[in-house]
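Propose amino acids for all 135 sites.
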């Protein structure tokens, strides 16, 4: 697809795919996803979005086909990443990575924070409602 002789960039196709995901338009989403993969065949996120869309429509075979294609091409999902600066020192964290020198201490502090939050804001208990007929 071209607009006035210009090739549509992958970012536009990706935005269309995202909109199709939100609005559950799998037909247009398939087209948009394939267009992105023509331009960026190593874009792991597109494979995953397409597979998720197929699964949400019960199309397991299509989802499996997308994941197999991803594997065949050697495309791997990028790990989640976050970073923080403390005392002018940057700290980077990758999903599943436990190599940070203060990993155990960080986990301990996070557990304390989690416990404190649960104490301050307890989850509501499930309530059993019984249907009562009113005369």
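Proposal:
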């Amino acid at each position: 697809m071209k607009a006035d002789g210009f090739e549509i960039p992958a970012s536009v196709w990706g935005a269309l795919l995202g909109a199709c995901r939100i609005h559950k338009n799998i037909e247009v989403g398939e087209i948009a996803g394939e267009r992105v993969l023509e331009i960026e065949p190593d874009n792991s996120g597109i494979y995953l979005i397409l597979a998720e869309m197929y699964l949400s429509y019960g199309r397991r075979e299509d989802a499996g086909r997308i994941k197999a294609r991803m594997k065949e091409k050697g495309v791997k999902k990028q790990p989640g990443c976050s970073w923080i600066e403390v005392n002018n020192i940057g700290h980077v964290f990758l999903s599943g990575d436990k190599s940070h020198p203060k990993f155990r201490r960080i986990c301990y502090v996070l557990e304390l924070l989690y416990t404190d939050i649960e104490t301050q804001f307890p989850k509501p208990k499930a309530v059993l409602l019984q249907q009562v007929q009113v005369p």
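DSSP finds five helices and four strands in the chain. The radius of gyration is 23 Å.
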